[in-house]
Amino acid sequence: MGSGPNGLAAAVRLAQAGLRVTVLEAAERPGGGARTSQLTLPGVLHDDCAAFHPTALVSPFLASLGLERFGLRWRWAELDLAHPLDDGRAGVLSRDPARTAASLGAVDARAWRRLFAPVVADAEALNAEVLRPLLHLPRHPFVLARFGVDALQPATWTIRRWQDAPARALFMGVAAHAFGRLDTPLSASIGLMLAATGHAVGWPVAEGGTQAITDALLRVLDSLGGTVRTGVTVTGLGQLPALLGERPDLVLLDTAPDAAVRIVDGGREGARMPPRVRRALARYRYGPAAHKVDFAIRGDVPWTNEDCRRAGALHLGGTAEEIAAAEAATVAGRLADRPFVLVGQQYLADPSRSAGGAGSAGGGSAGRINPLWAYAHVPAGFQGDATEAVVAQIERFAPGFRERIVATHVRTARQMSLYNANYVGGDISAGANSGRQLVFRPRPALDPYALGVPGVYLCSSATPPGGGVHGMCGANAAESALSWLRRQ
């Protein structure tokens, strides 16, 4: 149930094993957070949620599928990420180490290399470890232990390695993808992984939009005989025999934990979640929300810093200290005066998303209408409108941006949760990335995918390894389900 990347990955893995698979999706279009729509103007393509895909390129399961054979094409901007500052400088994350070094200065560039060189060198082995549940017998214990020493630190400690603002802000902005406090243990972990992955493979986009990843997975599933039915809302397991014409051997739920409890306890004879599992999932915590704004703009964003005009992704939050304070306020339930904002210029790598005029990778003509993707971190369930705060943060580093806006589409935190029921309170990470939940999500267990009901498993981003369009939550859950089925 659920056709996000994890639901589709689980379905593909089950179909590969020879099972007859049906995917049930409540929405009219499959994809979950991996969809692309014309949200502002005809012909202008906006990613509805997920936009940049470093984890997709390092996903062992997606790599095994050869999605390029099913129509997926990856595209990269000249620079993967830029983090502008008020003084006109910007820290840059690039697959070219020299480009990153040039933006950080000689002293901080050396310190940056000392931190990331081992992680990048061990990227394949490390990904094989961290894209699984924590409780497993590691194949590369030394690599995992070396990474763990740095990953356990608060992000606010990690930035002490650097003397100047560009490096400190660049790392803190990547760490802020955790949607949480940055002064707590393990808050450096996501920053380390995402930055190292950016150096190793970049932060690419899918040609035609993130929907292209969904479409490729759907083609794989179709080639294996699997089917997808949209517009089907399931409230309890008791509905399944009537919907499918038979009782399924396995049920995998690409849902938030609270929805999994409702569905499992919604009626199948003898299928009730054990109290210990239900209590654990009831304690599962959701994190801050995203307030998403999509712009159609005429031409390009007039960034003050030239590197920002070449970067696919941008982090807008000012200094490392500003970002840490803004994230702390968000977690505490307050909208920061200057919230952390992510901006996507996917059209630089993929001009097919734009409309009108002549365009090419790397930029558009003055008359071209380009999509600009952005969201701000806001408190969980935020009831207000942070659109002006998003515009102000862009204008802060690109004076004159307002004059470029042709059309705007807004999804508030509440609207994000309506768009995708897994985004509880607008939380697009499907769960708070606190220290405990980073390690044990959705609950401490040898098999975190099992729900205590024979044949029923959770496969959403609430399970290891967490958020991202990598499909590993679904693939891991499917392996667990298949292992149980073989024992029957």
CATH superfamily of the domain at 5-34 and 55-72 and 213-285 and 432-487: FAD/NAD(P)-binding domain
Low-pLDDT stretches are 360-364
Structural class: alpha+beta
Chain-averaged pLDDT: 92
Question: Which overall shape is indicated by the principal axes computed on the Cα atoms?
Answer: globular
As for the CATH topology of the domain at 5-34 and 55-72 and 213-285 and 432-487, it is: FAD/NAD(P)-binding domain
Tally of DSSP β-strands = 17
Question: Can you offer a commentary on this structure?
Answer:
With 488 residues, the protein is α+β, with helices and mostly antiparallel strands. It has a domain at 5-34 and 55-72 and 213-285 and 432-487: FAD/NAD(P)-binding domain (3-Layer(bba) Sandwich). Helix content is 36%, strand content 15%. The protein has helices at residues 5-16, 54-57, 60-65, 97-104, 106-121, 123-130, 141-151, 155-158, 165-175, 189-201, 211-223, 240-244, 257-264, 275-282, 320-331, 387-397, 413-419, 435-439, 472-487; strands at 22-24, 36-37, 46-47, 74-75, 79-84, 90-93, 205-206, 227-229, 251-253, 289-298, 311-316, 341-344, 359-360, 363-364, 369-378, 405-411, 456-458. A seven-stranded mixed β-sheet has the order 6-5-11-12-15-10-16, sandwiched between helices. Strands 1-8 form a two-stranded parallel sheet. Strands 2-3 form a two-stranded antiparallel ribbon. Helix 1 (5-16) runs parallel beside helix 11 (211-223) and helix 4 (97-104) packs antiparallel against helix 5 (106-121). The protein starts with a helix and ends with a helix. InterPro entries: FAD/NAD-bd_sf. It comes from Streptacidiphilus fuscans. This is NAD(P)/FAD-dependent oxidoreductase.
